[in-house]
Amino acid sequence: GQNIDQPTEMTATEGAIVQINCTYQTSGFNGLFWYQQHAGEAPTFLSYNVLDGLEEKGRFSSFLSRSKGYSYLLLKELQMKDSASYLCAVRDQLGDYKLSFGAGTTVTVRA
Amino acid sequence: NAGVTQTPKFRILKIGQSMTLQCAQDMNHNYMYWYRQDPGMGLKLIYYSVGAGITDKGEVPNGYNVSRSTTEDFPLRLELAAPSQTSVYFCASSPASGTDTQYFGPGTRLTVL
């Protein structure tokens, strides 16, 4: 089974940086995904990490440490439209494309 | 391309009624999934399929059934609806590739009264 933990809520100011942490305990590991989900909408893909290190995509970056069972999503230069829930998801077996999701972190960006 | 489509968008059922949630994708993806999302909770996998004619249970399959007769369609059947099945249901699909993400439909908001 999987245990995936992330904070419930975070608040930050427009233009600031926010870091959302995700820790996981899994029987195996084959990749970690971050999704963004605006209220009332479907999740959309943000990033994917399978090797240790930092992946950067514009204002968003994601980091993975497999030995620590830890990832974070870094949102820079926050904009009001970044107010959303951010979901951490782990794939646990090679060749098995099922994902296990954390409960999500609701980020509120204030002016 | 429409991507992943789901119907209906909203539905209210009475306890004991049955219904089918429709899901279709036009990306020729092999893998398809059904999730439910309760308020403040993550997505829970109900059923998934790795190709036409093949389905398997996820984490919370009780009270649901699925079929996959074509690559494009993956309907979810609720038999004898219960209030505990009040949720938002998302269908997703992905190609048979390890690095590719899942693509989600817009969701169906179901209330059972």
Query: Helix/strand/pairing class of chain A, anyone?
Result: mainly beta
Shape of chain B: globular
Total number of helices of chain A: 0
Strand proportion of chain B, as a percent range, falls in over 45%
Helix percent of chain A reads under 10%
Computed Rg of chain B: 13 Å
Most extensive interface between two protein chains, with residue counts? A-B, 24 and 25 residues
Following the backbone from N to C, one meets helices and strands of chain B in this order, namely EEEEEEEEEEE
Distance separating the two termini of chain B: 36 Å
Quick recap:
The complex is a heterodimer of chains A (111) and B (113). In chain A, 0% of the residues lie in helices and 62% in strands. Chain A is built from no helices and eleven strands.
Your description of this structure?
The complex is a heterodimer of chains A (111) and B (113). Chain A is an all-beta fold and 111 residues long. Chain A is built from no helices and 11 strands. In chain A, strands 2, 4, 5, 9, 10 and 11 form a 6-stranded mixed sheet that branches. Chain A is globular and about 45 Å long. Chain A starts with a strand and ends with a strand. With 113 residues, chain B is mainly β. Chain B contains no helices and 11 strands. Chain B starts with a strand and ends with a strand. At the A-B interface, strand 5 and strand 10 of A face strand 4, strand 5 and strand 10 of B.
